[in-house]
Amino acid sequence: MSVGFVPGSGPLHRAHPFTPLAIAASTAVLAFALPVPFGPMILAGVLLLLVLVERAPVLKPALLTALPFWFFLYVIHGVFGKHPVIALGLSARVFAIVLGFLLALATVHPGRLVDALAERGVPFSFSFLLTATLQAVPRLRARATEILAAQRCRGLRVRGSIWRRAAAVIPLAVPLVLSAVAEVDERAIALEARGMGGVTNRTPLHPPPDSAVQRLIRWGLAAGTVTAIAVRFV
Amino acid sequence: MIKITPRLLALIPLAVGINLALGQFAAATSLPVFLDTVGTILVAALLGLWPALLTGLVSQLAFTVISGNATWLAFLPIQLAVAACAALAAGRGWFRSVPTVIGTGLAMGLIAASLSWPISYLLFGGVTAGGVTVVTTLLNGAGVPLKWAVLAASLSNDLLDKTATFFIVRVVLVSLPARAIGRFPAAGRALGRA
Q: Is A185 on the interface with B (CB under 8 A)?
């Protein structure tokens, strides 16, 4: 299952990157602030509608992510606890949060988000940090696989009893971490040479266009979320 | 506060990669631990509090973006608590011997469990992704009230996980060449050498 940006031409793809993110953030808060079971169910319904309008292919990954939650929620609250309505409400809560986040992930292009953040004065190093991390993760995973293969050639066993599997952690972790530490200086010099040590903010060449309507929507979402929290908890 | 230096920009992505690679190994081999904070604790030992907090934050964000499961973000306080406690432990030189590492790991496990079980129980009805939920379900099915089942599952996993993680970081710190210790003076302090 792959999650991430998917090209498209729907209203959320054309929107300023902060708008889908505001929808995802307010969904994550409203899913807890609105009363179970109907609040999260209505929220999930609204998001499903948005997904259909946007034609974003996020329904399948959202279902695959939510299914294990639904199963255990049904067993714990529906079967053991005999409260299937609570299981339904909590399932809708998880589904709404996952769907809102995947929708934002599918509609916000990382490059446009970096430009939008730079336009608002966020230092480039913070945007770079997340991008560099997302690039480093598959590299470190591949390196871990290589180290493990090399250690297995030397007789390391990663299957069998729990002690045998646990004993394989150190021969993997130590070379992995030491190779990463050895790489730090080389990467730091390369970054310094590319001006990453600078303190001035960058100016984006093509900042994503924003509009009064979108600003109004974002402020409306923030106000609605704060009101829902106040009504529920105060 | 924190100044984002090129060295930090180089180290944090690698530390997060370590978190995710070891976390994936633990899950793939069905070990009853997460091992997803090794990189965060390592940064705490090498560079101190603020870089460790930033590593914890970026790690949880990256894990959420890669898995597509936004419920992970609710557990961000645990990553931050681990970072803060690891920085404290490193500053006091508690990586100096195996007994101090085990004691620190157990204390960290207690803190992590006391933070994770209310999040899991109150926000998600005791259900989160991962093997902890299987333990919760088994205990609940055996008649243990849900609240205590979630607490017991969180405690058993976190005590084991944080002790193992602190132990791994100590082994790594001890294995660091003298040149690396020279570049990260905090590592020497964490090992009680300064």
A: yes
